[in-house]
Amino acid sequence: MSRKIEAIEEMAGVALGNVGESSQPFLKALGSKGLPIPNSKWPYKARVGLTEGTRHFHAVSIVAAKGQNSRKKDDLYHRIATEATLLRTYGNGVYSKRYESGGYLAEVAKNLTLGIGVVRECIQAMRVDLVFGFQDDHQTEDSPFFGEIVEQFLRANTTSPIAPSFRPNLAVRLDMEWDRKSPVTFYQKVFEILGKGSNAIRTWMPYEAEAMQHYYNSRIKTGSLTTPFDLEVRDLKNRRQMIDLGKRLTDKTSIYVLPRIINVHRNALVYGDPLITAPTPGFRKINNGGCL
After folding, report:
1. Among candidate residues 149, 179, 21, 136, the one with its CA nearest the CA of residue 81
2. Relative to the CA of 57, which of 137, 142, 193, 257 has its CA 20 to 30 Å away?
3. Are residues 224 and 95 part of one domain?
4. How far is C-alpha 157 from the chain's CA centre?
5. Cα 16 from Cα 23, distance rounded (Å)
6. Is 99 helix (H, G, I), strand (E, B) or coil?
7. Whole-angstrom distance, CA of residue 118 vs CA of residue 109
């Protein structure tokens, strides 16, 4: 039996049962908890392996998640950020004071046993989750740890022994142009400098990992209340809404938000797993590029 059907059984609190047994206990259990009741033929098809209950699993999970906090998502993102923090290494020679970024994300993905594309999309979703939850007038004293991490990144990339001509443009311009007010203005400036298609942000990622680890650890300790991003993605019903949300988030955060990033975040929120996906009607897999 698929893990999706097992998850529905866990939510219902009643086993689906075997072929020939009545489906009524299972259907009544779903109904009593306010969960969507599938087509009357669904239990039979699930029992004989004709369906994994993909769409129904998705509907049940979304409804169930509305009464919960964001702990599943926070646990997943914290695990990714923790692994990424532990795997950091310093460079060699004149780069011995800054974290190495070459091959870094691939090593993180390998240790998490996830594809590098999935890890990249999770990191993008984490950025949106962090930034969308802050107001533009929040000062760095509201998030001192983030500000400290950024300063570490800037010092490591803009001071001796790295010669001025070899200092990353991103760090040099951030040091001169970022207003040092909040994570919101930080990422706005990052993507203003880089644009949406550059991979140069990878020099920031080893430092970003520690900031994200701290952020999600703090969220877990304080109850994992839903973030504004969580609330937005939970109620999406079709692809058009997902595209519209991506545009609004891009305008708000300056982070280029593709539909697949939103879908990964919803999977993390509802299932605690970026790979469990059950698209609603009208959703199609897309393969657009985007900033790392």
Report:
1. 149
2. 257
3. yes
4. 27
5. 7
6. strand
7. 8
pLDDT higher than 70, residue 36: no
**Same domain for 261 and 122:** yes
The answer to whether 191 touches 291, Cβ cutoff 8 Å, is yes
What is the DSSP annotation of 142-205? GSHHHHHHHHHHHHHHHSTTS-GGGS-HHHHHHHHH---S-HHHHHHHHHHHH-SS--GGGGTH
Report residue 36 as tokens.
Answer: 């969507």
214 & 262 share domain: yes
Domain limits at 85? 69-292
* Residue where a domain terminates, one of 65, 82, 103: 65
* Same domain flag for 33 and 162: no
The three-state secondary structure class of 121 is: helix
Same structural domain, 264 and 221: yes
Task: Using the predicted structure, report yes or no on whether residue 98 has a pLDDT greater than 90.
Answer: yes
For residues 243 and 249, give the distance between their C-alpha atoms in angstroms, rounded to a whole number: 10
What is the model's pTM?
Answer: 0.77
* Domain count for the chain: 2
